[in-house]
Every structure is written in structure tokens, then in C-alpha cells.
């Protein structure tokens, strides 16, 4: 996830932190109906948020 986040940032597809924000947003939206999937998305959002820009 960190690799994907940095790759998207380098290519100008997403600004730094946007992938984490989008994953968190989606996790919040589905948390009530799909708590397991939301937890996984929240985890990956945290991983993407900690990606070190190159």
C-alpha cells in the first residue's frame, strides 16, 4: 500500500495523503454494514498515510 501510495503521488494521480483519506472515507461509509471490511480499509488507510514520499 505504501508503494502504491507513493507511485500514485509520483505520477500526479493523487496528492500526498489523498489515498489514505479516500480509504478512510470509504471505511467510514461501510462501517455499519460491513465492519470487517471497514476495519481492513482503515488499516490500509493508516499504512498509506504513513507512506514516505520519495
Summarize the structure.
With 54 residues, the chain is mainly alpha-helical.
Describe the structure.
The protein has 54 residues and is mostly helical. It has one domain. 69% of the residues lie in helices and 0% in strands. It has 3 helices and no strands. α2 packs antiparallel against α3. The longest helix has 15 residues, at 35-49. The radius of gyration is 11 Å and the shape is elongated. The mean pLDDT is 87.
Q: Supply the number of helical segments.
A: 3
Low-confidence stretches: none
Helices and strands: which structural class? mainly alpha
Number of strands: 0
Rg from alpha-carbon coordinates: 11 Å
Sketch the topology as an H/E string, one letter per element: HHH
The pLDDT mean sits at 87
Query: Which percent band covers the strand fraction?
Result: under 5%
**How is the quaternary structure best described?**
single chain
Q: Total domains, how many?
A: 1
Proportion of helical residues: 55-70%
Note the gap between the termini.
15 Å
What's the main sheet like?
Answer: none
Inertia-based shape: elongated
Amino acid at each position: 500500500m505504501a508503494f502504491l501510495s507513493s507511485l500514485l503521488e509520483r505520477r500526479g494521480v493523487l496528492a500526498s495523503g489523498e489515498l489514505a483519506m479516500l480509504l478512510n472515507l470509504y471505511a467510514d461509509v461501510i462501517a455499519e454494514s460491513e465492519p470487517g471490511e471497514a476495519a481492513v480499509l482503515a488499516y490500509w488507510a493508516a499504512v498509506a498515510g504513513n507512506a514516505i514520499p520519495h
